[in-house]
Amino acid sequence: MKIERLILRQVRLPLVHFFETSFGRTYHRDIVLVEACGEGLSGWGEVTAGENPFYNEEWTGSVWPIVMDYVAPRLLGRELASAREVAPLTAQIRGHLMARGGVEAAVWDLEARQKGLPLWQLVNQDLPADRVRREIPCGVSIGIQDSVEQLLDKIALELAAGYQRIKMKIKPGWDLDVVRRVRDRFPAIRLMVDANSAYTLADADRLRGLDEFYLMMIEQPLGHDEIIDHAALAAKLRTPVCLDECIRSAHQAEQAIRLRAAAILNIKLGRVGGFAEARRVHDVAQAAGVPVWCGGMLESGIGRAHNVALSTLPNFTLPGDVSASRRYWRRDLIWPAIETTPQGTIRVSAAPGFGYDLDHDFLKAVTVREEAVT
Ligand code: OSB
Ligand code: MG
Fold it and tell me: Are residues 215 and 337 in the same domain?
Protein backbone atom coordinates (compact mmCIF):
# COMPACT_ATOMS: atom_id res chain seq x y z
CA MET A 1 0.00 0.00 0.00
CA LYS A 2 1.43 3.35 -1.04
CA ILE A 3 0.07 6.76 0.00
CA GLU A 4 0.40 8.80 -3.19
CA ARG A 5 -1.43 11.90 -2.04
CA LEU A 6 -2.85 13.43 1.10
CA ILE A 7 -5.62 16.01 0.93
CA LEU A 8 -6.51 18.11 3.96
CA ARG A 9 -9.85 19.85 4.19
CA GLN A 10 -11.13 22.08 6.93
CA VAL A 11 -14.89 22.16 7.31
CA ARG A 12 -17.08 24.40 9.43
CA LEU A 13 -20.24 22.79 10.77
CA PRO A 14 -22.79 24.46 13.08
CA LEU A 15 -23.91 22.30 16.00
CA VAL A 16 -27.64 21.68 16.43
CA HIS A 17 -27.24 22.81 20.05
CA PHE A 18 -24.25 24.36 21.82
CA PHE A 19 -22.05 21.96 23.77
CA GLU A 20 -20.62 23.13 27.09
CA THR A 21 -17.97 21.46 29.22
CA SER A 22 -16.00 22.70 32.23
CA PHE A 23 -13.55 24.28 29.74
CA GLY A 24 -16.02 26.18 27.60
CA ARG A 25 -18.96 26.36 25.21
CA THR A 26 -18.91 25.51 21.46
CA TYR A 27 -21.54 26.51 18.90
CA HIS A 28 -19.85 25.09 15.81
CA ARG A 29 -17.04 22.75 14.91
CA ASP A 30 -13.98 23.53 12.77
CA ILE A 31 -12.84 20.06 11.74
CA VAL A 32 -9.83 18.94 9.70
CA LEU A 33 -10.52 15.93 7.48
CA VAL A 34 -7.84 13.77 5.90
CA GLU A 35 -8.15 12.00 2.56
CA ALA A 36 -5.37 9.47 1.92
CA CYS A 37 -5.15 8.42 -1.74
CA GLY A 38 -3.47 5.35 -3.17
CA GLU A 39 -4.00 2.91 -6.03
CA GLY A 40 -7.12 4.70 -7.20
CA LEU A 41 -8.88 4.59 -3.82
CA SER A 42 -9.35 7.08 -1.00
CA GLY A 43 -9.41 6.52 2.75
CA TRP A 44 -10.88 9.12 5.07
CA GLY A 45 -9.93 10.23 8.54
CA GLU A 46 -11.07 12.94 10.93
CA VAL A 47 -8.82 14.87 13.26
CA THR A 48 -10.60 15.18 16.60
CA ALA A 49 -8.85 18.32 17.88
CA GLY A 50 -11.16 21.02 19.22
CA GLU A 51 -11.43 24.66 18.16
CA ASN A 52 -9.22 25.72 21.09
CA PRO A 53 -6.32 24.05 22.95
CA PHE A 54 -8.45 23.51 26.06
CA TYR A 55 -9.23 19.75 26.11
CA ASN A 56 -5.59 19.07 25.28
CA GLU A 57 -2.86 21.11 23.61
CA GLU A 58 -4.08 20.55 20.05
CA TRP A 59 -6.55 22.69 18.15
CA THR A 60 -7.78 23.08 14.57
CA GLY A 61 -5.01 25.58 13.84
CA SER A 62 -2.17 23.32 15.02
CA VAL A 63 -3.32 20.36 12.97
CA TRP A 64 -2.67 21.77 9.51
CA PRO A 65 1.06 22.57 9.86
CA ILE A 66 1.75 19.37 11.80
CA VAL A 67 0.22 17.20 9.09
CA MET A 68 1.64 19.21 6.17
CA ASP A 69 5.15 19.80 7.50
CA TYR A 70 5.76 16.70 9.64
CA VAL A 71 3.31 13.84 9.03
CA ALA A 72 2.90 13.96 5.24
CA PRO A 73 6.65 13.94 4.40
CA ARG A 74 7.09 10.81 6.55
CA LEU A 75 4.36 8.88 4.76
CA LEU A 76 4.07 9.98 1.16
CA GLY A 77 5.47 7.63 -1.45
CA ARG A 78 6.40 4.98 1.13
CA GLU A 79 5.44 1.35 0.66
CA LEU A 80 3.42 0.31 3.74
CA ALA A 81 2.60 -3.31 4.59
CA SER A 82 -0.37 -2.09 6.65
CA ALA A 83 -1.85 0.93 8.43
CA ARG A 84 -0.10 -0.30 11.56
CA GLU A 85 3.12 1.19 10.18
CA VAL A 86 1.80 4.76 10.22
CA ALA A 87 2.19 5.42 13.96
CA PRO A 88 5.86 4.28 14.13
CA LEU A 89 6.68 6.44 11.09
CA THR A 90 5.39 9.55 12.86
CA ALA A 91 6.71 8.63 16.32
CA GLN A 92 9.46 11.24 16.17
CA ILE A 93 6.80 13.96 16.39
CA ARG A 94 6.20 14.69 20.05
CA GLY A 95 2.53 14.88 21.01
CA HIS A 96 0.01 16.00 18.36
CA LEU A 97 -1.63 12.60 18.64
CA MET A 98 -4.93 13.82 17.22
CA ALA A 99 -3.27 15.17 14.06
CA ARG A 100 -1.26 11.97 13.67
CA GLY A 101 -4.29 9.85 14.59
CA GLY A 102 -6.50 11.49 11.97
CA VAL A 103 -4.01 10.54 9.25
CA GLU A 104 -3.54 7.06 10.74
CA ALA A 105 -7.32 6.50 10.69
CA ALA A 106 -7.48 7.57 7.02
CA VAL A 107 -4.85 4.95 6.17
CA TRP A 108 -6.80 2.27 8.10
CA ASP A 109 -9.87 3.21 6.08
CA LEU A 110 -7.82 3.05 2.87
CA GLU A 111 -6.44 -0.39 3.79
CA ALA A 112 -9.94 -1.68 4.53
CA ARG A 113 -11.18 -0.38 1.16
CA GLN A 114 -8.24 -1.88 -0.71
CA LYS A 115 -9.05 -5.23 0.93
CA GLY A 116 -12.79 -4.79 0.30
CA LEU A 117 -13.49 -5.16 4.03
CA PRO A 118 -15.59 -3.12 6.44
CA LEU A 119 -13.25 -1.23 8.75
CA TRP A 120 -14.66 -3.01 11.83
CA GLN A 121 -13.56 -6.32 10.32
CA LEU A 122 -10.04 -5.04 9.72
CA VAL A 123 -9.92 -3.72 13.31
CA ASN A 124 -10.90 -7.20 14.58
CA GLN A 125 -9.05 -9.26 12.01
CA ASP A 126 -6.95 -11.28 14.45
CA LEU A 127 -9.91 -12.08 16.77
CA PRO A 128 -12.39 -14.97 16.49
CA ALA A 129 -15.37 -13.77 14.43
CA ASP A 130 -17.88 -14.83 17.09
CA ARG A 131 -16.36 -12.37 19.56
CA VAL A 132 -16.85 -9.37 17.31
CA ARG A 133 -19.69 -7.06 18.27
CA ARG A 134 -21.93 -6.08 15.35
CA GLU A 135 -24.18 -3.86 17.40
CA ILE A 136 -22.65 -1.42 19.86
CA PRO A 137 -24.34 -0.09 23.02
CA CYS A 138 -24.78 3.69 23.00
CA GLY A 139 -24.94 6.42 25.60
CA VAL A 140 -25.09 10.19 25.31
CA SER A 141 -22.95 12.98 26.67
CA ILE A 142 -25.01 15.98 27.73
CA GLY A 143 -23.26 19.29 28.24
CA ILE A 144 -23.79 21.91 30.91
CA GLN A 145 -27.09 23.69 30.23
CA ASP A 146 -28.47 27.14 31.02
CA SER A 147 -30.82 25.65 33.63
CA VAL A 148 -31.41 22.39 35.47
CA GLU A 149 -34.90 22.20 33.90
CA GLN A 150 -33.30 22.24 30.45
CA LEU A 151 -30.95 19.43 31.48
CA LEU A 152 -33.83 17.32 32.84
CA ASP A 153 -35.79 17.83 29.61
CA LYS A 154 -32.79 16.78 27.52
CA ILE A 155 -32.23 13.66 29.59
CA ALA A 156 -35.90 12.70 29.24
CA LEU A 157 -35.62 13.11 25.45
CA GLU A 158 -32.50 10.94 25.17
CA LEU A 159 -33.99 8.23 27.36
CA ALA A 160 -37.11 8.22 25.19
CA ALA A 161 -34.83 7.72 22.17
CA GLY A 162 -33.51 4.56 23.85
CA TYR A 163 -29.99 5.56 24.91
CA GLN A 164 -28.60 3.15 27.50
CA ARG A 165 -26.78 5.60 29.76
CA ILE A 166 -26.63 9.29 30.42
CA LYS A 167 -23.40 11.19 30.99
CA MET A 168 -23.69 14.72 32.28
CA LYS A 169 -20.90 17.25 32.42
CA ILE A 170 -20.06 18.75 35.80
CA LYS A 171 -17.85 21.59 37.06
CA PRO A 172 -17.60 23.49 40.36
CA GLY A 173 -20.96 25.24 40.71
CA TRP A 174 -22.75 22.69 38.48
CA ASP A 175 -22.26 19.45 40.35
CA LEU A 176 -23.80 18.00 43.54
CA ASP A 177 -27.04 20.02 43.52
CA VAL A 178 -27.61 19.31 39.83
CA VAL A 179 -26.80 15.60 40.10
CA ARG A 180 -29.18 15.37 43.08
CA ARG A 181 -32.02 16.81 41.01
CA VAL A 182 -31.25 14.45 38.12
CA ARG A 183 -31.22 11.46 40.49
CA ASP A 184 -34.48 12.56 42.15
CA ARG A 185 -36.15 12.70 38.77
CA PHE A 186 -34.48 9.56 37.29
CA PRO A 187 -33.71 7.20 40.21
CA ALA A 188 -33.09 4.08 38.12
CA ILE A 189 -31.11 5.21 35.06
CA ARG A 190 -27.48 4.41 34.33
CA LEU A 191 -25.91 7.78 35.11
CA MET A 192 -22.32 9.08 35.12
CA VAL A 193 -20.55 12.43 35.29
CA ASP A 194 -17.56 13.92 33.43
CA ALA A 195 -15.61 16.83 34.96
CA ASN A 196 -12.98 17.33 32.24
CA SER A 197 -10.26 18.05 34.81
CA ALA A 198 -12.19 20.78 36.66
CA TYR A 199 -11.20 19.70 40.20
CA THR A 200 -8.09 19.12 42.31
CA LEU A 201 -7.33 16.65 45.05
CA ALA A 202 -8.31 19.38 47.54
CA ASP A 203 -11.91 18.84 46.34
CA ALA A 204 -11.92 15.18 47.41
CA ASP A 205 -14.48 15.71 50.18
CA ARG A 206 -16.84 17.51 47.82
CA LEU A 207 -16.45 14.77 45.21
CA ARG A 208 -17.13 12.15 47.87
CA GLY A 209 -20.58 13.76 48.07
CA LEU A 210 -21.29 12.15 44.69
CA ASP A 211 -21.07 8.67 46.26
CA GLU A 212 -24.69 8.84 47.44
CA PHE A 213 -25.94 9.01 43.83
CA TYR A 214 -24.66 5.52 42.87
CA LEU A 215 -23.12 6.77 39.63
CA MET A 216 -21.58 4.31 37.16
CA MET A 217 -18.38 6.37 37.30
CA ILE A 218 -16.85 9.83 37.51
CA GLU A 219 -14.77 10.65 34.44
CA GLN A 220 -11.53 12.65 34.63
CA PRO A 221 -12.22 14.71 37.75
CA LEU A 222 -8.60 15.92 38.17
CA GLY A 223 -5.82 17.40 36.04
CA HIS A 224 -5.25 16.19 32.49
CA ASP A 225 -1.88 14.65 33.43
CA GLU A 226 -2.51 13.74 37.08
CA ILE A 227 -2.53 9.94 37.18
CA ILE A 228 -1.03 9.89 40.70
CA ASP A 229 -3.60 12.30 42.15
CA HIS A 230 -6.37 10.25 40.54
CA ALA A 231 -5.04 7.20 42.38
CA ALA A 232 -5.25 9.12 45.67
CA LEU A 233 -8.77 10.30 44.88
CA ALA A 234 -9.98 6.87 43.75
CA ALA A 235 -8.94 5.45 47.15
CA LYS A 236 -11.32 7.94 48.82
CA LEU A 237 -14.36 7.40 46.59
CA ARG A 238 -16.88 4.61 46.26
CA THR A 239 -17.76 5.93 42.79
CA PRO A 240 -15.45 4.29 40.22
CA VAL A 241 -12.98 6.65 38.53
CA CYS A 242 -12.72 6.60 34.74
CA LEU A 243 -9.83 8.32 32.98
CA ASP A 244 -10.11 10.20 29.69
CA GLU A 245 -7.56 13.05 29.21
CA CYS A 246 -4.81 11.26 31.22
CA ILE A 247 -4.57 8.25 28.91
CA ARG A 248 -2.63 8.94 25.73
CA SER A 249 -0.91 5.58 25.36
CA ALA A 250 -1.13 1.93 26.35
CA HIS A 251 1.84 2.51 28.65
CA GLN A 252 -0.05 5.21 30.54
CA ALA A 253 -3.09 2.94 30.67
CA GLU A 254 -0.95 0.24 32.21
CA GLN A 255 0.47 2.69 34.78
CA ALA A 256 -2.97 4.07 35.68
CA ILE A 257 -4.35 0.59 36.20
CA ARG A 258 -1.34 -0.51 38.23
CA LEU A 259 -1.72 2.53 40.51
CA ARG A 260 -5.49 1.93 40.75
CA ALA A 261 -6.07 5.43 39.39
CA ALA A 262 -8.83 4.12 37.12
CA ALA A 263 -11.32 1.26 37.29
CA ILE A 264 -12.64 2.07 33.81
CA LEU A 265 -11.05 3.67 30.73
CA ASN A 266 -12.48 5.95 28.08
CA ILE A 267 -10.68 5.30 24.77
CA LYS A 268 -10.65 8.01 22.13
CA LEU A 269 -8.99 7.33 18.79
CA GLY A 270 -7.49 10.78 18.38
CA ARG A 271 -6.32 11.15 21.97
CA VAL A 272 -4.15 8.01 21.70
CA GLY A 273 -3.00 8.60 18.11
CA GLY A 274 -5.16 6.19 16.14
CA PHE A 275 -6.40 2.63 15.81
CA ALA A 276 -3.13 0.80 16.55
CA GLU A 277 -2.59 2.45 19.94
CA ALA A 278 -6.33 2.35 20.76
CA ARG A 279 -6.15 -1.40 20.28
CA ARG A 280 -3.15 -1.64 22.62
CA VAL A 281 -4.97 0.39 25.29
CA HIS A 282 -7.96 -1.91 24.85
CA ASP A 283 -5.77 -5.00 25.28
CA VAL A 284 -3.94 -3.69 28.36
CA ALA A 285 -7.28 -2.90 30.00
CA GLN A 286 -8.80 -6.23 29.03
CA ALA A 287 -5.86 -8.17 30.47
CA ALA A 288 -6.36 -6.30 33.77
CA GLY A 289 -10.13 -6.83 33.85
CA VAL A 290 -10.77 -3.10 33.30
CA PRO A 291 -13.73 -2.38 31.01
CA VAL A 292 -13.47 0.34 28.36
CA TRP A 293 -15.87 2.47 26.35
CA CYS A 294 -15.45 4.70 23.33
CA GLY A 295 -15.37 8.44 23.94
CA GLY A 296 -16.46 11.08 21.45
CA MET A 297 -15.19 14.50 20.38
CA LEU A 298 -18.32 15.87 18.68
CA GLU A 299 -17.22 14.16 15.46
CA SER A 300 -18.77 14.45 12.04
CA GLY A 301 -20.03 11.21 10.52
CA ILE A 302 -16.54 10.22 9.42
CA GLY A 303 -15.03 10.19 12.91
CA ARG A 304 -18.29 8.84 14.30
CA ALA A 305 -18.14 5.86 11.92
CA HIS A 306 -14.54 5.22 12.96
CA ASN A 307 -15.70 5.23 16.59
CA VAL A 308 -18.37 2.66 15.74
CA ALA A 309 -15.72 0.40 14.14
CA LEU A 310 -13.44 0.71 17.18
CA SER A 311 -16.32 -0.05 19.57
CA THR A 312 -16.77 -3.53 18.08
CA LEU A 313 -13.66 -4.78 19.94
CA PRO A 314 -14.63 -7.22 22.73
CA ASN A 315 -13.63 -5.17 25.80
CA PHE A 316 -15.88 -2.24 24.80
CA THR A 317 -18.51 -3.60 27.17
CA LEU A 318 -19.91 -0.30 28.45
CA PRO A 319 -22.10 2.10 26.42
CA GLY A 320 -19.91 4.77 24.79
CA ASP A 321 -20.37 8.40 23.77
CA VAL A 322 -21.12 7.24 20.24
CA SER A 323 -24.56 8.51 19.33
CA ALA A 324 -26.70 9.39 16.32
CA SER A 325 -25.61 12.05 13.81
CA ARG A 326 -28.82 14.01 14.36
CA ARG A 327 -27.89 14.87 17.93
CA TYR A 328 -25.13 17.08 16.51
CA TRP A 329 -25.84 17.84 12.85
CA ARG A 330 -28.80 18.97 10.80
CA ARG A 331 -27.00 17.40 7.85
CA ASP A 332 -24.01 15.10 8.24
CA LEU A 333 -21.03 14.71 5.92
CA ILE A 334 -21.97 11.08 5.35
CA TRP A 335 -24.97 9.35 3.90
CA PRO A 336 -26.98 7.78 5.37
CA ALA A 337 -26.57 9.54 8.71
CA ILE A 338 -25.68 7.33 11.69
CA GLU A 339 -28.80 6.25 13.54
CA THR A 340 -29.54 4.33 16.69
CA THR A 341 -32.06 1.54 17.18
CA PRO A 342 -34.93 1.96 19.68
CA GLN A 343 -32.79 -0.19 22.02
CA GLY A 344 -30.04 2.44 22.03
CA THR A 345 -27.56 0.60 19.83
CA ILE A 346 -25.82 1.23 16.51
CA ARG A 347 -25.55 -1.63 14.03
CA VAL A 348 -22.33 -1.79 12.04
CA SER A 349 -22.44 -1.25 8.30
CA ALA A 350 -21.46 -4.09 5.96
CA ALA A 351 -20.01 -1.68 3.37
CA PRO A 352 -16.21 -1.47 2.87
CA GLY A 353 -14.10 1.02 4.81
CA PHE A 354 -15.86 3.14 7.41
CA GLY A 355 -19.12 1.97 5.91
CA TYR A 356 -20.95 5.11 4.71
CA ASP A 357 -20.97 7.27 1.59
CA LEU A 358 -19.63 10.81 1.66
CA ASP A 359 -22.10 13.55 0.89
CA HIS A 360 -19.71 15.23 -1.56
CA ASP A 361 -22.01 18.16 -2.36
CA PHE A 362 -22.40 19.04 1.28
CA LEU A 363 -18.69 18.47 1.94
CA LYS A 364 -17.85 20.94 -0.82
CA ALA A 365 -20.34 23.46 0.54
CA VAL A 366 -18.86 23.45 4.06
CA THR A 367 -15.17 23.26 3.12
CA VAL A 368 -13.34 26.48 4.01
CA ARG A 369 -9.78 25.36 3.25
CA GLU A 370 -8.28 22.61 1.10
CA GLU A 371 -4.73 21.59 0.24
CA ALA A 372 -3.21 18.52 -1.38
CA VAL A 373 0.35 17.20 -1.04
CA THR A 374 2.05 14.53 -3.10
O1 OSB B 1 -14.59 14.72 27.66
O2 OSB B 1 -15.64 13.27 26.58
C3 OSB B 1 -15.25 14.43 26.68
C4 OSB B 1 -16.67 16.58 23.85
C5 OSB B 1 -15.60 17.42 23.61
C6 OSB B 1 -14.47 17.31 24.37
C7 OSB B 1 -14.39 16.34 25.38
C8 OSB B 1 -15.45 15.48 25.63
C9 OSB B 1 -16.62 15.64 24.86
C10 OSB B 1 -17.82 14.85 25.07
C11 OSB B 1 -18.74 14.68 23.88
O12 OSB B 1 -18.16 14.41 26.14
C13 OSB B 1 -18.91 13.27 23.46
C14 OSB B 1 -19.61 13.18 22.13
O15 OSB B 1 -18.97 13.33 21.07
O16 OSB B 1 -20.81 12.94 22.13
MG1 MG C 1 -14.34 13.08 28.92
Answer: yes
In angstroms, the CA 203 to CA 172 distance is 9
In total, how many domains does the chain have?
2
Closest CA to 327 of 49, 17, 51, 14: 17
Query: Which CATH number goes with the domain that contains 20?
Result: 3.30.390.10
Give DSSP secondary structure letters for 170-189.
-BTTBSHHHHHHHHHH-TTS
Is the distance from the beta carbon of residue 196 to the nearest atom of ligand 1 less than 6 Å?
yes
Catalytic annotation on 167? no
What CA–CA distances, in Å, run from 8 to 71, 159, 207, 321? 12, 37, 43, 26
* pLDDT at residue 130 in the model: 84
- H-helix or E-strand containing 267? strand 264-267
What string of H, E and C letters represents the secondary structure of 294-335? ECCCCCCHHHHHHHHHHCCCCCCCCCECCCCHHHCCCCCCEE
How many Å apart are CA 316 and CA 312, to the nearest integer? 7
What one-character DSSP code corresponds to residue 118?
B
Which domain, by its residues, includes 105?
A: 5-116+360-373
pLDDT score at 131: 82
Quick check: CB of 194 below 6 Å from ligand 1?
yes
- Closest atom, ligand 1, to C-alpha of 328: 16
User: Same domain for 267 and 140?
Assistant: yes
- Catalytic: 2? no
Cα 247 to chain centroid, rounded? 12
Per-10-residue mean pLDDT, the chain, length 374: 97 97 96 97 98 97 98 96 97 98 98 97 92 94 98 98 98 98 98 98 98 98 98 98 98 98 98 98 98 98 98 97 98 98 98 98 98 97
Q: CA-to-CA distance for 2 and 24, rounded, in angstroms?
A: 41
- Can you give the pLDDT at residue 51? 97
